[in-house]
């Protein structure tokens, strides 16, 4: 009996009809068996032939061994329980993450670590092909940090995944606004006849990467109208002492409130410029483009108010008709 194992290996047997073989690589193989008798009385020996096709997968071998699957998210920021991949706060900022790792072939997880992005990392003792763990870290310095998890299986297949981004400031940003009107006077709590032109001198000191927005709210406008205008003063990241002047005119009677926000929430999804109004409102010169619904701008206003790293400065004034 001759056995062709399909991988350039052969066995020849005389009386034993069983055999075994070790495949050293993945693949599809055709096993062929040739059997001959020893009939000396026949004009020629009798023979028979059979074959079978098999597929071989060796656990841990390339390319069919896949790296571990990593998942994770932030589940606590300070004392607040969350489920997010983006977080922000003032240092020292405590962060807790949930990490889940699973090997698709069931190989053991041999190496697992989390890199906090601030020069510190934790090695995690993992066992089995599935592993869940919670890890905590405190950010002492300001900056934007990527939390990355690495995992390697028992055959050396490795995967790396960024699971979260954290923005940390060493202190809340400082903002100082010195508003002046057309008479070079402070417009706070003043009443103007027919129109008001405001020029705002903004001074900010920033210890990280901040954004600065102006929010103008007009109420009791003609016909009881309402308007909200939001504009980003510094569209790009800034650092250090900055001074900027932003001017606008309110040309319709109403009650106005102006607020400047300086903030560093990296997940703050707000357009660089948007205004919203009720029908028949938003007549002032800062309203440009298509008016959106008041509810939309109210939502963006809420994001400014609820930012984790922020400071603000505001003033109010009134315009009446005479």
Describe this structure in words.
There is one protein chain. It is built from 1 helix and 21 strands. Helices cover 4% and strands 57% of the residues. The strands form 4 sheets. Strands 14, 15, 16, 17, 18, 19, 20 and 21 form an 8-stranded mixed beta sheet that branches. It is mainly β. Mean pLDDT is 83; it is low at 41-45. The protein folds into 3 domains: 2-56, no CATH class; 69-169, Immunoglobulins (Immunoglobulin-like, Sandwich), CATH 2.60.40; 174-320, Phosphatidylethanolamine-binding Protein (Alpha-Beta Complex), CATH 3.90.280. β12 and β13 (158-169) form a beta hairpin.
Describe the protein's topology:
Elements: E1 2-4, E2 10-12, E3 27-36, E4 47-56, E5 69-77, E6 80-84, E7 86-90, E8 93-102, E9 109-115, E10 121-123, E11 130-139, E12 143-153, E13 158-169, E14 174-180, E15 190-193, E16 196-221, E17 225-232, E18 238-250, E19 254-263, E20 273-277, H1 294-305, E21 310-320
Parallel strand pairs: 7-13, 15-21
Antiparallel strand pairs: 1-2, 1-3, 3-4, 5-6, 5-8, 8-11, 9-10, 9-12, 12-13, 14-16, 16-17, 16-18, 16-19, 17-20, 19-21
């Amino acid at each position: 009996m001759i056995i062709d194992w399909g991988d350039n290996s052969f066995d020849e047997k005389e009386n034993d009809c069983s055999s075994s073989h070790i495949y050293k690589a993945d693949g599809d193989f055709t096993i062929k068996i040739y059997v001959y008798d020893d009939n000396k009385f026949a004009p020629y020996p009798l023979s028979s032939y059979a074959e079978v096709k098999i597929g071989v997968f060796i656990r841990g071998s390339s390319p069919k061994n896949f790296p571990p699957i990593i998942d994770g998210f932030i589940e606590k920021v300070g004392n607040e329980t969350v489920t997010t991949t983006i977080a922000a706060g003032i240092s020292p900022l405590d962060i807790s993450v949930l990490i889940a790792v699973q090997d698709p072939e069931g190989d053991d997880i041999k190496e697992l670590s989390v890199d906090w992005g601030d020069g510190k990392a934790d090695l995690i003792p993992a066992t089995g092909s599935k592993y869940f763990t919670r890890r905590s870290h405190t950010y002492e310095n300001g900056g934007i940090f990527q939390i990355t998890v690495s995992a390697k299986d028992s055959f050396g297949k490795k995967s790396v995944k960024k699971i979260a981004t954290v923005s940390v400031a060493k202190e809340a940003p400082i903002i100082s606004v010195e508003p002046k009107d057309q008479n070079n006077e402070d417009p706070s709590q003043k009443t103007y006849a027919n129109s008001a032109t405001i020029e705002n001198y903004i001074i900010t000191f920033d210890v990280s990467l901040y954004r600065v927005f102006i929010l103008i709210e007009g109420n009791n406008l003609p016909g009881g109208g309402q308007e909200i205008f939001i504009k980003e003063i510094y569209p790009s990241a800034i650092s250090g002492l900055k001074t900027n002047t932003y001017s606008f005119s309110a040309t319709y009677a109403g009650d106005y409130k102006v607020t400047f926000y300086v903030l560093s929430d990296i997940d703050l999804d707000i357009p660089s410029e948007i205004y919203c109004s009720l029908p028949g409102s938003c007549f002032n010169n800062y309203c440009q483009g298509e008016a959106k619904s008041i509810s939309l701008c109210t939502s963006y206003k809420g994001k400014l108010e609820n930012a984790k790293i922020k400071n603000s400065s505001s003033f109010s004034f009134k315009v009446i008709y005479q």
